[in-house]
Fold this sequence. Notes:
By secondary structure, this protein is mainly α. It is built from 2 helices and no strands. It is 86% helix and 0% strand.
Amino acid sequence: LWAIGAVLILANWPFTLLAIMPVNRQLEQTPASEANAETMALLVRWGELHAGRSALSGIASLAFLGASLVAQM
């Protein structure tokens, strides 16, 4: 369980760099005055990706919690 938690928490780094950062860069390059439906789609995509990153962290936390409970037995 410790290893599973570690892999999941470390998976956040490449996920952020490879999946979320390109969307961030596109959003940052869009002036507010030029925001359109494509910009909204990018914001929705960013939210979905962020939810995935949060899920990785949450599952890692559960794995760490489980590992610590097993270690106390």
